[in-house]
Amino acid sequence: MIINKQNMAEVDFEKSELIPAIVQDALTGVVLMQGFMNRDALEVTLDKRLVTFYSRSKSRLWTKGETSNNVLELVEVHTDCDKDSLLIYATAQGPTCHLGSESCFADTMPQLAFLGKLERVIAQRKNASPESSYTASLFAKDLSRSCQKVGEEGVEVALAAMKNDNEELLNESADLLYHLIVLLQRQGLTLSEVVNTLELRHK
Known about the structure:
Strand content: 15-25%
Order of helices and strands: EEEHEEEEHHHHH
CATH class of the largest domain: Alpha Beta
Helix content: 40-55%
Number of domains: 2
CATH topology of the largest domain: Ubiquitin-like (UB roll)
Strand order of the largest sheet: 1-6-7-2-3
Distance between the termini: 21 Å
Shape: elongated
CATH architecture of the largest domain: Roll
Radius of gyration: 21 Å
Number of helices: 6
CATH superfamily of the largest domain: Phosphoribosyl-AMP cyclohydrolase
Oligomer: single chain
């Protein structure tokens, strides 16, 4: 259930004034951290669109990144079936962990989450100077160039498979995925939308 300011009263704070709140990266699905929220923390989170917890050590509300500026920008809040714990989708501005890593659970990051990280980096380079990176130079060229690259890499993937060269197949597949993400970004589309299309076909 998605929680907003209109229905936040449905969250169950009766059993405990503090309930667990797990934060996930909205793009990659990586679990970033876990904290606790009371009713006020949830309300502030929804109002300011910045993830805010109740700090048990400070005995006060604490907005993640209030001193480091590594804030967690709110995307959505969900509750579980019992409505006594929260799952928060957010976009991290900088490392989440105080030790400097992306996640407080750094050693449990799922491998496929890298595709989301790559997509984010590619998106950030859309408006960068063409001289700053190969990716930025692709965005500076005509759409036809990105279309051509996807076509070329697709053919090279097929040729590598025909040669039964698995190392080349992996390398060419990586190139194809990269150029496909670039093309999707140029068209204002995301990998998540591709996954949604696959899910609809599966139903």
